[in-house]
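Recap from last week: sequence in, structure out.
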Amino acid sequence: MEDWIPLTYGKNCRLDPLATPNSGSHVERKYQDKKEKKEIEAGIATRTPFQRDKDRIIYSKAFRRLIHKTQVCFTGEMNEHIRTRLTHTLEVSQIARSIARQVHANEDLAEAIALGHDLGHTPFGHTGEKVLNDFLSGKDEGIKKKLLEKYEFDITEMKLHFKHNFQSVRILIELEEGYKDFKGLNLTCPVLEGILKHTKLESNGQPIVYEGINENGAFHLDQKFSCSLEGQIVALADEIAQVCHDIEDAIEGNYDSKEIICIQLQRLIGEFDINDLGENVDVKEMVATRQIKYFISCIIGQVISEAVIEIRKNMKDLNKSGLKAKYPLNKEIATDCVLDKDKLFQRLKEIENNFVINNYMIDRMNGKSSFVLRQIIKAYLTNPKQLPDHVLELYAEVCSVPTLKEMIRKICSVPANVRYFSKKDFEVHQAAIIKDRAFLRLMSDYVASMTDLYALQEYQKLYGGESI
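Predicted structure tokens:
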């Protein structure tokens, strides 16, 4: 298959030597895809492997759920015009494609990575991620104490963690269903590896451990940055989209720090020569006349332009050295070092950190969402039967406790479900279920899969009746 990508304006441009090619051993899938193989052999394949990956991600259930997941603040109680995790994902995809096109990288690979990068996010954004990681790692002292008292179980000994980039990969290789011959979506390694490395592989300096991922050599976890130019571009695009659009949302959502943010943006105009913005621009007037989108657009455009210049420079230096296209790529071309040199972006990030994230409305919502998720987790740990059947049925398949596995084989239900143990047997083995790392991971999978509204409804059902 010839390695070129169509560009706009009716021109075609070959991939840069540093871009990830569409063919080679790196696009081989873990499981043979009979449909893909048949189309290639018949000469009727119309999609590159990375286009197939992109399509599978778009059609997944996890992708659809992003529409009701928080980006920065809970849209249901604040403003439905601000971004959700889905709209953020689409915007990251657009920025990544724009950068990839300008540096002649593989747009299809960049788009596939971008579309899948946040599939593993929890309800309520990074607050939910922290709640689940604190629970699994034992940092949540309240839940840790409850487990010690009720089950004589120290969860810290399990050395489990939760992080959304690892969870995204877990969804794509294990949890998504619908294909006859394999679990997950059977994606190519460059897509999965780019998703895994779009953000840090550690949490508070501690390495994240996920069974089935850390021991997979195809992810090259000895290298912290992505093994593809396109993966590095997506990580860059994610940062740009998050910082710039969070600021726009803070103004659109009328956060209580809106006035302070406007003052900070006004100062930016004096500090930087921003393309298409004159020195006499009045930010407050632009907000009043609903032109803030244009202001943010100019800023994003400049950040992207400066990033492209830096990436091209890095690529030129490497191309001069004679480095040819390969996967894995062990050179940093479009990593954080590109944005670290961008003074405009660093000022924007400072505004986001100080005046968007540290916000009265967001702090209140974060506190509420943390409480809701912790209570849901406590309910499931008190009585695992409160989990839905599909979770308990899946646990029956992956249970790792020998005595329990033997009892599961005797259950007269199809599929097997630990719910149908006798009351006495369930009480006797409940501690063993809770202590099983397979159960803890599946329970976390279920909580992480919830949308914001579903989590609130589940809390209401567990603690306050069926209606909300």
